[in-house]
Write a structure and sequence with these properties.
By secondary structure, this protein is of the alpha+beta class. It has helices at residues 2-24, 66-76, 94-102, 135-139, 147-156, 166-173, 177-189, 205-216, 231-245, 253-260, 278-285, 321-328, 335-347, and strands at 29-35, 42-48, 53-61, 83-89, 106-108, 114-118, 121-125, 193-196, 199-202, 222-226, 250-252, 269-272, 288-289, 296-299, 311-313, 316-318.
């Protein structure tokens, strides 16, 4: 225990010295030093070349999750007096970065990324690779391999104003409470979920979906095809496909999106079909595989969760608004506009904070 305490103290001392040295190297800074403080981890004093003196209250955190940084700010904001708040953490997420920027909080992480905002100093450094935390640890609930987490998220988005008890949600999804807890903790740490007397509920659904879409990325298991038929005829064939050859389909991309929000014109069909039915579908649609100039994209769902909550709209089977957003935002062109319209009008409509 003594060795651990000593190691932690030495580590904090090294980090503090690094911060002091970094500030000293700012051209408009004359000198920088620190002293002990009962309230903060250190009181940093910055002497400017102009003669001004900046006082900074430094807080060193084990991690920079948004919820922790937010709680820290709320705790110390009224106690700052003439000091600026400076937070150091080994890792600072994009969400935390924007929170700090919006609230004029200075920070630095273990990779040298920082936002210094005090007096006449403003330095914004981003992009340094941070090895203090793995991408998997941060993004695991959004990755395609996290099938159970995906199902939990999709259920939460069925009604974003509904609170859920952990046991209730685990039974509904058919998973363990531990798996629900993993998703809950991740979202809570990022200040995107709160616990109420009625249960846990999303607080920033738009932010969650945007982060999910970044990690989700583009579909990779796709077959690009070209048909001589026009879009209307292709979609009509798909509508009749189940009756004709017994094969299911689920529209996404432009074809699916316009059935929710007809805000763009389009010239390409995106549709999910089973890997076992690919050749049947290609034959039925009378199309050919191509490496360029395609007007049909056949997509193989990577997991059954992709087709959760699909809807029947205008005689067509269409993926859920959530899946439509995840797909649409990752398709170049006007499909991003379509995805944003679906997000606002189909998913967030009526959301109350």
């Amino acid at each position: 225990m003594v060795k651990v305490v000593i190691k932690v103290k030495l580590q904090k001392q090294t980090q503090l010295q690094h911060i002091i040295q970094f500030i000293k190297e700012i051209p408009i800074v004359k000198d920088c030093r620190y002293k002990d403080d009962e309230l903060f981890d250190a009181h940093i004093i910055v002497d400017m070349q102009s003669g001004e003196v900046m006082n900074i209250g430094l807080i060193m955190l084990s991690n920079g999750y948004p919820s922790i940084v937010k709680n820290t700010y709320e705790k110390y904001h009224s106690l700052l007096n003439d000091k600026y708040l400076f937070i150091y953490a080994s890792y600072i997420s994009d969400i935390t970065y924007h929170y700090c920027k919006d609230n004029s909080i200075s920070f630095m992480d273990g990779a040298g990324n920082c936002l210094l905002n005090f007096g006449s100093v403003y330095i914004d450094i981003k992009g340094n690779k941070n090895n203090h935390v793995s991408k998997r640890g941060l993004k695991s609930i959004y990755e395609r391999s996290s099938v159970v987490s995906s199902k939990i998220l999709r259920v939460l988005f069925e009604d974003i104003n509904r609170p859920w008890k952990m046991k209730e949600l685990s039974e509904y999804v058919g998973c363990s409470i531990g798996q629900v807890s993993k998703v809950k903790n991740f979202l809570a740490q990022n200040d995107q979920m709160k616990q109420t007397d009625e249960g846990m509920i999303l607080t920033k659904p738009k932010e969650v979906l945007e982060e999910w879409a970044k990690v989700y990325g583009k579909n990779t298991d796709i077959i690009e095809c070209y048909s001589m038929d026009n879009i209307v005829d292709i979609e009509t064939k798909l509508i009749n496909m189940k009756d004709k050859i017994g094969v299911d389909y689920y529209l996404t991309g432009y074809s699916g999106g316009v059935r929710y929000q007809p805000v763009v014109r389009y010239y390409k069909v995106h549709v999910y079909v089973s890997s076992l039915d690919l050749e049947k579908v290609i034959s039925y649609l009378n199309c050919e595989k191509t490496s360029f100039g395609s007007n049909i994209t056949l997509i193989v769902p990577y997991d059954e969760s992709v087709l959760m909550n699909w809807q029947y709209i205008d005689n067509s089977q269409v993926v859920s608004p959530v899946q439509m957003y995840l797909d649409g935002i990752n398709i170049n062109g006007r499909c991003e506009v379509l995805a944003e319209a679906i997000l606002e009008k189909e998913i967030l409509n009526g959301f109350s904070t």
